[in-house]
């Protein structure tokens, strides 16, 4: 059977897709990604539970061996905060890789939307997810004996720095999600990056590491960020660390955004 | 307006050393249902990707409702919808949430989007599943939702990339009915398929794509006339094919074929096979028929 060709109608052509105003597309995608986060209970639980367990393990199990005075909790919480941000951000790589695999990104690309809007959705959702997880980790830290001395101004500065760090690392993971061949692969790359905090001053002072490792640990991006968090919360000397911290975050952010935009153009539409 | 729905002139696209589209030219009129028929690797999806602004061609031009897909991509994007091979719906959302999201991305307000979602959910037969996560949907339901997403704003041209691949017979027939009713409302439909039957059921005109080029173009009846009639097949008791004799579809030719089998004293089960895509290709590209059979 063949369908008859309908006569060209004189009626008005159907309405067009409207041009979106402001950040409508971005807000739709943020909403979408937040729904994903809330419905993906396991990932959400892991993003909170693992850092909390990490903290309990470092304070109660290793803490005594590393520093028997009991002050280790004050030393390690800044490191845990940072590791926590990494945990939560890594799931962004999986979400992005999944969008690439299902072809939904291609569908969005056939619509008149800003190309990066869908990534922005993932990144903003990750930022909110991680800020909540970080607040919980700090709360648990206080419960197990962490006693920060920071003023209100220092806490605000801390929040800004942590948000900047999460933003930078989430964009990096979003780009990794685009680069990875599959969600499973994206997950694997995520783990590699999660080891970076262990090679910094997050868990033990750089001075306690073997000589050859010290320059690497002292100059990698995570160390100045941890030292800044520590300075803001515990009043340890800040020196130039905040500048290095913000500088590193901005460098990572710029590279990740540029890499992500390049990958997005290249990879999408080529499954 | 007198502009054609789709115009393609001498389009070329290569990936590395592989030429996927090799001088393709086509015109699709407004309101037409047009099928691009071909095997995997014939260049069907790449053609759709070029027309829907996902991929840019190496040379040649393509326009959709009068707008160049490259220089006026946004104007094209405002007038088309794509329902791709993968049923690109959001698994982690409900059916309603999917439609609302796409409606809002098409520029409808919140309230308007919810109203539109309710309409489409009903129109596409998804009322019972409206608030269920898409993850739990059957293949047929996913395709219906996928089509609903393409109609949040009625497109001027609807692109369907292998719309029924992987569906069972019943879902396939349901989807065909749906596509027919959508086409009847005036939307131009450009679809790709590997199945002659699907092109036959849906399309006003069919282009057979072979090695990135149009090998034949016409109505289903015209193409079938070129392919010939049914083929008489003889199988042994294990279903192994013993002989096949093409016929031109007339009673006398069928009798001739059976007589031929009789003369050979053949023993087995006789079946009659409709022309398949393989047959269309063999008939249309006969000079290098063997090469075709391998790729098809």
Textual characterization of the structure:
- The complex is a heterodimer of chains A (271) and B (296).
- Chain A is mostly helical and 271 residues long.
- Chain A has one domain.
- Chain A is 71% helix and 0% strand.
- Chain A is built from 10 helices and no strands.
- The longest helix of chain A has 31 residues.
- The two termini of chain A are 34 Å apart.
- By secondary structure, chain B is of the alpha/beta class.
- Chain B folds into 2 domains: 220 residues, P-loop containing nucleotide triphosphate hydrolases (Rossmann fold); 70 residues.
- Helices cover 37% and strands 26% of the residues of chain B.
- Chain B is built from 11 helices and 13 strands.
- In chain B, the strands form 3 sheets. Chain B has a 6-stranded mixed beta sheet, with helices on both faces.
- In chain B, helix 6 links the parallel strand 7 and strand 8.
- In chain B, helix 3 packs parallel to helix 5, helix 5 runs parallel beside helix 6 and helix 10 packs antiparallel against helix 11.
- Classes of the chains: A mainly alpha (271), B alpha/beta (296).
- At the A-B interface, helix 1 and helix 4 of A face strand 6, helix 3, helix 6 and helix 7 of B.
Number of domains of chain A: 1
Largest sheet of chain A: none
Low-confidence stretches of chain A: 1-12
Shape of chain A: elongated
């Amino acid at each position: 059977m063949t369908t008859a060709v309908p006569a060209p109608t004189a009626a008005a052509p159907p309405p067009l897709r409207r041009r979106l105003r402001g950040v409508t597309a971005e807000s739709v995608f943020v909403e979408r990604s937040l729904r994903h986060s809330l419905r993906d209970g396991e990932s959400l639980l892991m993003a909170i539970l693992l850092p909390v367990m990490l903290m309990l393990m470092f304070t109660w199990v290793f803490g005594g061996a590393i520093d028997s005075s009991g002050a280790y909790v004050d030393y390690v919480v800044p490191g845990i905060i940072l590791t926590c941000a990494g945990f939560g951000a890594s799931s962004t790589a999986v979400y992005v890789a999944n969008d690439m695999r299902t072809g939904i990104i291609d569908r969005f690309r056939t619509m008149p939307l800003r190309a990066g809007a869908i990534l922005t959705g993932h990144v903003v959702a990750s930022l909110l997810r991680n800020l909540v997880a970080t607040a919980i980790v700090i709360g648990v830290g206080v419960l197990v004996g962490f006693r920060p001395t920071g003023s209100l101004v220092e806490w605000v500065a801390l929040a800004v720095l942590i948000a900047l760090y999460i933003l930078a690392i989430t964009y990096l993971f979003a780009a990794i999600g685009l680069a990875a061949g599959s969600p499973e692969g994206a997950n694997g790359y995520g783990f590699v990056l999660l080891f970076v905090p262990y090679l910094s001053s997050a868990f033990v002072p750089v001075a306690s590491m073997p000589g050859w490792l010290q320059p690497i640990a002292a100059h990698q991006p995570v160390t100045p960020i941890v030292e800044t968090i520590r300075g803001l919360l515990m009043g340890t000397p800040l020196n130039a660390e905040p500048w290095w911290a913000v500088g590193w975050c901005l460098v990572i952010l710029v590279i990740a955004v540029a890499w992500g935009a390049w990958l997005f153009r290249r990879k999408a539409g080529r499954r | 307006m007198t502009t054609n729905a789709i115009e393609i002139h001498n389009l070329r696209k290569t990936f590395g050393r592989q030429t996927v589209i090799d001088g393709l030219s086509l015109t699709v009129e407004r309101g037409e249902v047009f099928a691009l028929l071909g095997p995997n690797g014939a260049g069907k999806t790449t053609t759709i990707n070029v027309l829907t602004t996902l991929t840019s061609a190496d040379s040649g031009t393509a326009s959709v409702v009068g707008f160049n897909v490259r220089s006026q991509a946004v104007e094209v994007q405002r007038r088309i919808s794509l329902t791709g091979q993968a049923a690109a719906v959001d698994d982690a959302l409900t059916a309603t949430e999917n439609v609302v999201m796409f409606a809002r991305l098409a520029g409808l307000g919140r309230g308007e989007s919810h109203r539109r979602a309710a309409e489409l959910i009903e129109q596409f037969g998804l009322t019972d599943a409206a608030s269920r996560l898409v993850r739990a949907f059957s293949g047929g339901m996913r395709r219906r939702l996928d089509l609903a997403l393409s109609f949040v704003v009625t497109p001027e041209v609807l692109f369907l990339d292998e719309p029924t691949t992987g569906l069972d017979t019943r879902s396939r027939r349901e989807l065909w009915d749906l596509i027919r009713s959508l086409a009847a409302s005036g939307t131009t439909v450009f679809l790709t398929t590997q199945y002659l039957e699907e092109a036959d059921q849906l399309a006003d005109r069919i282009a057979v794509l072979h090695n990135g080029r149009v090998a034949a173009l016409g109505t289903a009846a015209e193409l079938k006339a070129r392919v010939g009639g049914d083929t008489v097949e003889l199988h042994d008791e294990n279903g192994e094919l013993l002989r096949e004799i093409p016929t031109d579809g007339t009673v006398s030719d069928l009798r001739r074929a059976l007589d031929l089998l009789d003369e050979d004293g053949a023993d087995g089960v006789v079946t009659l096979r409709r022309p398949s895509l393989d047959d269309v290709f063999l008939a249309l590209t006969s000079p290098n028929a063997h090469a075709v059979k391998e790729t098809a």
